[in-house]
Amino acid sequence: MEILIKLFLTFAKIGTFSIGGGYAMLPFIQKEVIERNNWMSMQEFSDILAISQMTPGPVAVNSATYVGYTQAGVLGSVAATLGVVLPSFIMIIIIASFFIKLYEKRSVKAVFKGIRPGVLGLLAAAAYTVTITSVPDIKGGILFVLCFGVLFIKKVDPILVILGAAILGVILY
User: Fold this and answer.
1) Is residue 99 over pLDDT 80?
2) How far is it, in rounded angstroms, from Cα 94 to Cα 100?
3) d(CA 110, CA 90)
């Protein structure tokens, strides 16, 4: 029971103080899961991110569900998932009731102009962390550059890129 409460509170904290969606939450999840609670290693965390990105749903919710499951089974996954989702759900309901009235205010627009670059910084930090832990060697580096190139330059469907990377992973490793 204690682990369920800890999972819920940890992910509720992440859900409460992370702004910008799932990828922006990754630095917070990493800090809590790896550094503060020692629930898994950085390599395991990288694996979770890969799985979370390939499965349907938001990456933060998928990560919370997986971490919760590894720590306390199905109830752990429920506790962690509720923890990460409830704060946003509650905040959205509260904000939505006021947002229409306040959106045109200059101070509200200024807040959003400040938040956007901050969220971009969080995303860049998450991308950097994932990159250095997910590219194990030169073959992985080449695969990374290839996937990035076909996604960014050629605009290939991400599903095809994931399937291609999986096939190349089998061939290369």
Assistant:
1) no
2) 12
3) 23
